[in-house]
Amino acid sequence: MRQGVLERYRELLEITPNTPMISMGEGSTPLVRSRFIENEVGCAELYFKLEGCNPSGSFKDRGMVMAVAKAIEDGSAAIMCASTGNTSASAAAYGAYCGLTTIVLVPSGDVAAGKMAQALAYHPRILVVNGTFDQALEMVRTFTQRYPVTLVNSLNPHRLEGQKTAAFEIVDDLGDAPDFLFIPVGNAGNITAYWRGFSQYADLGRAETLPRMMGYQAEGAAPIVRGEPIAEPSTVASAIRIGNPASWQQALTARDQSGGVIDSVTDDEILSAYRMLSRREGIFAEPASAASVAGVIKFSGQLDLAGKRVVCVITGSGLKDPDLATQNIDMSLQELPPELWAMEKVLEEVVQGTLSLGPKA
Amino acid sequence: MRQGVLERYRELLEITPNTPMISMGEGSTPLVRSRFIENEVGCAELYFKLEGCNPSGSFKDRGMVMAVAKAIEDGSAAIMCASTGNTSASAAAYGAYCGLTTIVLVPSGDVAAGKMAQALAYHPRILVVNGTFDQALEMVRTFTQRYPVTLVNSLNPHRLEGQKTAAFEIVDDLGDAPDFLFIPVGNAGNITAYWRGFSQYADLGRAETLPRMMGYQAEGAAPIVRGEPIAEPSTVASAIRIGNPASWQQALTARDQSGGVIDSVTDDEILSAYRMLSRREGIFAEPASAASVAGVIKFSGQLDLAGKRVVCVITGSGLKDPDLATQNIDMSLQELPPELWAMEKVLEEVVQGTLSLGPKA
Hints:
Two copies of one chain form a homodimer.
Chain A: H1 5-8, E1 31-33, H2 37-41, E2 45-50, H3 60-73, E3 78-82, H4 86-98, E4 101-107, H5 113-121, E5 125-129, H6 133-146, E6 150-151, H7 157-163, H8 165-174, E7 180-184, H9 189-203, E8 212-218, H10 223-226, H11 248-258, E9 261-265, H12 267-281, H13 290-300, E10 309-314, H14 322-327, E11 334-336, H15 340-346, H16 348-351
Parallel strand pairs in A: 2-10, 3-4, 3-6, 4-5, 7-8, 7-10, 8-9
Antiparallel strand pairs in A: 1-2
Helix pairs in contact in A: 3-4, 3-7, 4-5, 7-9, 8-9, 9-11, 12-13
């Protein structure tokens, strides 16, 4: 049977005889070959790592399964996080699966029912804090230090341990590390985890090379690029709307050790990549995921990628943010009566055999 | 590398040397062990087949990859379907990936931007037909017979061929067929495809047994149970809101050959199962998927499942229908000031160490 990440990479994680080997089917996500952007950027091979195919729809499940297993091992009866997005959905899913009380703190300005629909479905205990995200996170830190409740924000070290398994899978699939890994950077935990995974595999001799780590922030939320925290980060890509990344130093280490780059892309570049991904590659991603694709497009204008093997991390499903999808689409729906002649008129190019787009076999 | 369904089951599908072996990472979806409902219904083992982990978020991708590959093999430059839901999303995704023109016909009464957000993202050509779904489908049938455009509704025989691979995977994972397969029934294509897959594996000696096929329709859309088409089918589970199933006879054959059942569940039973799935198993499914779970709960009240191995098919992601998630949740969000004392007061049971729910290790 397809194994979850704890079982699949058991010997490379901190699994003890007392760690419950839970799995909701996380990990072993598809690595899909590009059929359009690969040619656009002129590299030898371009792959997308589809983390939206995880059970709660984002890469967070890899770290959450590890954090929740460790919480159970440590005798904790409850988990807690501050989040309005993928983290709360993943925590609430694994909490529900394991029968743990899950408590989610949400800053009051960020309570959008649509965005929270998924987390709400799992029915965690939700507390709306009349304050900022930073205040909510600080409350979680203090409370979990004082009471037997496990913090599962990315400050929990098991989260990044679990997330490194995505790098293992890429090497297992390709036979070696790619030349470049493009990845969105928000809180900077994921770039840190991937670098740890690639490095560990190289140390073990399971990979011969290491990739250059190419992290991309949104221009309005680019503290690492600017070299200072951003008080009010702003970007359409909500999952990377972070002003003061928790893993800032580790991200710089990943960049410097790998000879990589941490750069920014504009919201226009992100939205352009978002549309290109769905319209040309058939991949409906959350906007933050498109930052990695915007990054490879921007970078390809600066440096020659000829002969290179490239992986872009697609962190989550576009279904997480359906409103953005409809906002960014020209809803030019053609109406017609239910008659064949009407359809023949509208689809004239098909009828006349001059349809321009052909298949790519 | 993880293979798509065409590669993985190549010798059991109609693959020729000219079939393009496309894949967007469909198939090889998780089979997750139940941790709550298994005990509730009293069977030996209960598993959920999470088809929402497919790239477009539903089981349709298995059949669509086959239909689109065959369309390309046959030299078609365009694909066409009538749909407002999972079929149009899957068709538009694979159409975009392969550079095929995708034309989606939508009956005007059914154009809800939220529900269509995903299909819209892939930017197919959308024609709104001022008529019923049946009229739209009839236009697709006539048009695709007359012009070189491939119909990819489930009338396309390659669709069911691709969908049978889910049955192969269940046997590959469990080592044999389960005793019971519970599955939602709308157009009845999926129950037909699963039965074909289980039967083929048994014929080949890859499975020793065959499952009893347990199909569940929604009470307001239960033509097979009633024995006559329903003019105006009605149910909260939109993906199985079908009044005159295309694979009606094949579904009866699957039922009768397997010693199974085709029964109905009420919308209340579906919504109760939908909530139980997310709150107790951490699985956020589309409402139609919950019909299979409602079915096993209903059936367990009629017959003893002791010692039996059961699989429930979870056809698609709950992210497909976020409005329903928020409608069906009591949004009892507690507000509090950003102060530790306020949280200690609200979480009194944690502070006093009397938290009732414990982990299931």
